[in-house]
Specification:
5-stranded mixed β-sheet; two-stranded antiparallel sheet; single chain; alpha+beta; 224 residues
């Protein structure tokens, strides 16, 4: 093939190829810090309480502030000594995704995944009960949802309730669980707190970095 034609084709390919998104200053793709991290962004799938991909999630790429990612690496390193790993379900969340939740909550007839995620909670009460809000710490970039997995099988440890389950069963101090489930929750709480992540009492999976770099800023760039 003529060399000039090859150069033209390469230039055209570069022009039309999608470019990797440049993150705002202070944010990182977490896989660049923790390459072996297991990431399953539930809001990029239909396996969530809405039952559909959430607006703003264009890929399964976990994004956090640099400080949160570096602290999370310390958690992963410690767990791996015990042949355990982290699995992350959500990190940075665009404000437009939060807006999607708010609009979904207003449609009382849309209850496709009620049986799985909020079987005993009426959808009209999701705001009053604190399950849905117009602002989320996730949009500040230093909050994440996660669990611990077995290093051999990759299976999540039994925490006594599914991720994103709306109900008392998800409260950190919920008493009606087995000793094994309680021990698993305690392990997650302890290792996250050791590396300066504070928990949310009503969700065993939810943590926010202490002294987060953007405590008052809610971002809206897409996850892509």
């Amino acid at each position: 093939m003529n060399h000039k034609i090859i150069i033209v084709l390469l230039c055209a390919f570069a022009f039309f190829s999608p470019k990797k998104m440049e993150l705002p200053e202070g944010f990182v793709y977490v896989k660049s810090v923790i390459p072996d991290l297991d990431v399953e962004l539930r809001y990029y799938t239909s396996n969530n309480f809405v039952g559909d991909t959430i607006i703003g999630y264009q890929s399964n790429k976990l994004i956090l502030t640099k400080e949160a990612a570096e602290a999370l690496k310390l958690v992963q390193d410690e767990l791996q000594i015990q042949n355990l790993c982290l699995k992350v379900y959500d990190g940075y969340r665009p404000q437009r995704a939060v807006n999607h939740f708010v609009e979904w909550a207003k449609d009382l007839n849309d209850t496709i995944n009620k049986h799985q995620f909020y079987p005993r909670v009426q959808k009209r009460n999701l705001f009053n009960d604190g399950y849905i809000a117009s602002k989320s710490g996730h949009s500040r970039g230093s909050t994440l949802d996660l669990t611990i997995t077995d290093g051999n099988t990759g299976e999540p440890l039994d925490m006594g309730s599914p991720y994103d389950f709306f109900g008392e069963e998800s409260w950190v101090e919920y008493a009606e669980i087995t000793e094994t489930q309680k021990a698993n929750r305690d392990l997650l709480q302890q290792v996250m707190q050791k590396y300066n992540f504070r928990n949310y009492a009503n969700e065993w999976w939810h943590f926010t970095l202490r002294w987060e770099p953007f405590p008052e800023t809610y971002f809206d760039f897409e996850v892509e």
